[in-house]
Amino acid sequence: MFYRPADGHGLPHNPFNAIVTPRPIGWISTKGADGIANLAPYSFFNAVAYVPPQVMFASTSAKDDQDGTKDSVANIRATGVFCVNIVEAAAQNAMNVTSATFPAGTDEFAEAGLTAAQCETIDCPRVDGVPAALECRMTQIVKIEGETNYVVFGEVTGVHMRDDCLNDGRFDVTRFQPLSRLGYRDYTVVRDVFELERPDD
């Protein structure tokens, strides 16, 4: 099968995000100018550089009560900071609660029964007890093709790692089993890992 996205795929559901899988989930916490915390998962998320460490996430829809975007991007525009919380398998239900479309000003930490902790390097909440959290200073917000598509880039200014996820000096994903996004309504859990040496190692 071949299709041109501009012409449509002719399938019952869009296959695009099922093709680009698995995708890590960036559980983005922010605080609005009004001081109210916000928390939402984004599966268009990844690390993009080592030095300095940088990450990105993309917001691809809008809410009626925000200016052409969602709460996360609106808050980051206002404050210039955000935190990426890493989602473990055990937190799938709480993460799913925060994916709902709540009115602006809703505290998703409270809705999902989560505890907010204060970040160290930025004025922003983080999810207490997650395997890792990346405190970020926004470097740019890029408008890309599409009415509501924005990519947020941030420099990591602080890193939290849960002690039980460290194993012989390495951050061990098998200790917490990251939740990853597939297509449609599907998710997967990372349970097995293996190593490959590069030819020039």
From TrEMBL:
Pfam family name, one: Flavin_Reduct
InterPro entries reported in the protein's UniProt record: Flavin_Rdtase-like_dom, Split_barrel_FMN-bd
Taxonomic superkingdom: Bacteria
PANTHER family linked: BLR2425 PROTEIN, FLAVIN REDUCTASE LIKE DOMAIN-CONTAINING PROTEIN
Molecular function (Gene Ontology), one example: oxidoreductase activity, acting on the CH-NH group of donors, NAD or NADP as acceptor
Domain Flavin reductase like residues, every copy: 18-173
Protein name per Swiss-Prot or TrEMBL: Flavin reductase family protein
The organism of origin for this protein: Aliishimia ponticola
